[in-house]
Amino acid sequence: MKQHFSIRKVLTYIDGIREDACSDPPHMHRPIPSPVRIRAIKRTLQVIGEMIKSTRESPNITVKLDRILQLITSEVLAERTKDLRQFFSHGYSLAKLELEAESCDQIGLVFQKIETNLREARRWFVYTQTQQNLLIYRRYLAYLKSFKTIEALRSYIAFVGTEFKGKLIETFRPEQLTEAKLLIQHMLDSSKPSELLNTATRTDLEYIGKELQLRIDVIRAENATLGRTIDDFFLLESYIRQPSSSLGRVRQIADWILSRTELAKRHKLVQKTDLMYARELLAHLQMGETDETRRYMWGAIWTRLAKEQFSGLDTLLGRTEQRTDVALDVTVKTMQSLNLPLDDDEYVQFVNRRLAKSYYQNVFVLDNKYRVLKEIVKDRRAGRQDNVRDVLERLKDLRKTDEQVLQRMFDGLLDTMEHILSHSDRLTGSLASQADEQALEYCLLEAAEIVCNLSVFRDNMSDLAMSVPVITGRNLRNYLAHDFLAYDTLTPCTKAVVQNARYLVENRLKLYATATVKVAPCKGQPRAVNEQAQFAEIFQRQTEWTMEQEEFFKIVTNFHTKTLEQRLRKPESNVANLLLMSRTCLDREVVSVALEGNPDRFIAHMLDYRPNELNLFYLLINYFHDTELVKKIEILIGSPQVFCARLALKYGLIDAVQALWQKTSQDAMKQLISTELSSIFVRHSSTFVQQLLRLLPSEWFLDLKDHLGNTVLHWAVLRGDLELLQFVMLRYKNLLKAKNAFGDLPLLIAVRYHDDVIAEMLLDHGADPWIEPKVVQTVAMRNGRQLLDRFPADIGRIVAAQMDAFLNNPLRAAVEENNYELFLTLHQQFGYDVQRGELLHLAARLNRIHFLRYLLANDDIYRNFSVDSISREYCFTPFMVACATGHYEAAQLLLQNGVNGLFQNENNYTAWHCAVHGGNRSILSLVLSIPHLDVNTVTKDKRSALSIAIDTDQTSYQINYLLTTAGVTVRPEHVLHACLLGKSDILKLLIDRQPDYLSATDFLQRSPLMIAVISNDRSMAQLLLDRGADRNAKNILGMNCLHMAALNNLTSISKLLLDDAQVDHEAEDKFRRTPLVVALEAEHLTIAEQLIQRGARLQSAYDYRFQQHRNATLLHKFTIEKRPRMVEYLVKKLHFPTDLVDDDGKTADMIAGDSSEDGNN
């Protein structure tokens, strides 16, 4: 359940970034975000990182779902949001101080990119959510089988609730795959034969289009199947609530439903790395295209099949790293203020290391800083030019300055919270937008982190142990930094964020003894003497208020209207209105509390409304400030009969129904019965049902159906009460042939959910088992041979009923249940056709040897049927299915009976490919014994047996078997594929056999070393370097490995490369950029510092020009883009020449001056 809410929370936060409605496509940039939206984005990143971060104690998502995110998006999203989560929710580092100091204009462009990245990623979170929901749904069904008593099972399904389970019904629309397929078709239809788009290329594109359509169709079919099984599941829950339900039947039906949703590799349908061949072809077409429009179209298709790249996240992560130069600057300023010597570089570095270790990770904890500085000034290397006492005095003055600065920063954070709260509803605590809520959460988390680190907030577990727990103190920090769900379960305090934020704003904390605190905006409120009293006060407020709410709800539940009027007439009108507006811990408002507490009294007060203080609704109308709800109450009071009749049906009040039904119009009453039909049979006793059926006209129920098309007979059968069923049968025998929305007859429900006695009663009254094929199929699934004997063997009607049968063929059910005798009875006695339902494929997949022998031994059966037929479900022959599923006996039997072991399907897959996919050594040996087998044959999507083995995570021992025993040939793409999937052990095995493939390149001319660098796989990169991989090989853009590390901010990899003397630091790509220029352009300053320390020439940065932008320099670029952080870095750190001019003869200073004049104008 936690995993379900984690992903829903992420989707809510991504949607909440927008301050207003937005229908733009994800790739379109929104305006540069405001400060509130920037904080909302930070909060969203922190929440995503927390969701993806999984531990044994906090399993937010499963390992499989983490793998899905990495497959269909990018490692940047899955991995780097974890790092950003740590940065935003733990401590207050010097890097964070620097980031927060940047203006909105400076940092806005970065967060604009991140917002676009998150909008692109949203669809994959939706897909991950559907996967998570399926897992939860299956686990829930499996858990139903573990109960020992039916009473405990009923309590459990009531506890989980229908609303939660209803939220699991979501579908994923493969929009990107659909768009890619339509674009490919458009390009094929609009293209003339050419050298670039020749016949072979067109054939490949048509194959890619078919492959995409196959995936789209399967996803849609799975959505439909899942929806159908969920409907079965809700009917199962209705059955569990019936008095005749049994644990054995629940377990059996749960198994049936689970078997129809057992698709463990659904994510393969949208796994983007699986479409690598298509991406290669599209990249080739894009690069070779001369028409700009068509080049754009090929690129658009490629983009839809490639992984998303999150450049904004990458840039932000670069800014969160602690820069050595910034830390050193701060250290030098501190040493200057204390008159410490700066001429000894080793000493300065020593001081910097001490402060970085003890203080720079959390700058608000000044005790750590000044403890280190006291030790430093006493060190002999400090020179002691001044009296130590004077230095200590300067330390005190410096600390006072620091305390004032940090206090002002904290007050600024509270000012932001105050600004957000100023747009909220003071009574309800509701904020203006979801973006405001997220921004407030982020600000409150920062404030809580600061005061926790200063030990102002302490643990308050004793307060959580109270009968009415509240959230504040360190628990508030944990509530925001980790997971709301656990705390929201413990406490009814649903506005913890707003309450604590308002409290902090109105009772401003003094972080340090010498700091000056900004005066709170709320005058007249007494301030607490100290922090302990302050937080005791907030506990007391929340606790007293919660107790008052509980007492108020008791008054409403018991309809003590006189007492209620006295409470509402108190002079504190705001308190009265707050009580009326409040909700219980189950999120019920005051009207629902009254209804749930006493429905009889509720109906009576509404029907006998009097405008006096003894009537609940009179009090609500006069004292409730919610005008919308008051209007609804007034409308109901004007005509209460239909509403009260619905309530009487819902709560099983037969006397109220009897009093109301003749006062209500016939059409309205029939509509009510139809709407409440399912709840009538689920909630109420058989006595109430019979009383209701006797009360209302019998002809009504011949046409009445619930929302799923179930009639009163369907529900009576599901109920399983023989007396009630006999009563309904005598009145509504004509409903025996009625089908619900899914084609289910009452007889089918009887066969599925009950013992034979219910079905036999229906058969005795004339139920026909042959009008719906699923009846016989269900009997077969149950192994109901005795019931089957009651069915008339009307062969003609059997054949007509099963003409289009596939999954509903009862012979398939017999094979699945491994019931051989029943299979023979259905075929030999009732004449079911073995040529329908792909029985041979099914028996091969499940390794049903007896069935295979029967099907293969009877020549009459298969005289017009090929044993090499293609399954529409798998597109494979029975032999290929047996090989893929690892069933040696089935594969051997099929091979002995004349199957074609060399058969290729339309995608050129063979039994050898399937055997390699299965990985069973015995089957591999069996297939290898087939004469003329080509172990290196390639499928249409360019996959060989070795490619499949690498894709399916097979071990190095299995790969070695293919290389040695099977004689599979290693090709360059195998080495590249192993690199791409991060499989170092397999890569080592392949390189040992073919060392020359260290220089292999893919369609982008990337070598294995380049792929290892891009994947940020240090161990694999080290392996390739040790084996002699070319360090300076270049890709299609002329970039070497060091360029790529600089571009992607891979600091660990860049250090590894820089340690290698053979790597060219000054190599230029096709745009004449050195690795240093690439690092600077991307603002990856940590890597820039690494390059400079290893001897990279600064002159290369000085000389670089943007030729397409009037030969501007890097300094011009950052000036035009208004990135003062980078301008300052270039000028002060790199001593970038400021007199360089562009083609217009302007320096960067001149451009800055022009921009400021334009701004003033």
Plain-language structure description:
With 1161 residues, the protein is an all-alpha fold. Among the domains are: 1-160; 192-310; 327-386; 397-512, no CATH class; 542-638, no CATH class; 666-767, Serine Threonine Protein Phosphatase 5, Tetratricopeptide repeat (Alpha Horseshoe), CATH 1.25.40; 768-831, no CATH class. The chain is built from 63 helices and no strands. Helix 18 (388-421) runs antiparallel to helix 19. The chain is flat, with a radius of gyration of 37 Å. It holds the Pfam family Ank_2. This is ANK_REP_REGION domain-containing protein. It comes from Anopheles melas. InterPro entries: Ankyrin_rpt (IPR002110), Ankyrin_rpt-contain_sf (IPR036770). Keywords: ANK repeat, Repeat.
Bulk shape: flat
For the secondary structure, the number of strands is: 0
Portion of residues in beta strands equals under 5%
Mean pLDDT: 81
- Please, how many helices? 63
Our Rg estimate from Cα atoms comes to: 37 Å
Report the biggest beta sheet as strand number plus sense, adding barrel if it closes: none
- Helix fraction, binned, reads 55-70%
Low-confidence stretches: 264-270, 460-469, 489-493, 521-532, 799-804
Q: Assign the structural class, choosing from mainly alpha, mainly beta, alpha/beta, alpha+beta, or little secondary structure.
A: mainly alpha
How far the N terminus sits from the C terminus, by CA atoms, comes to 57 Å
Keywords: ANK repeat, Repeat
Organism: Anopheles melas
Protein name: ANK_REP_REGION domain-containing protein
InterPro entries: Ankyrin_rpt, Ankyrin_rpt-contain_sf
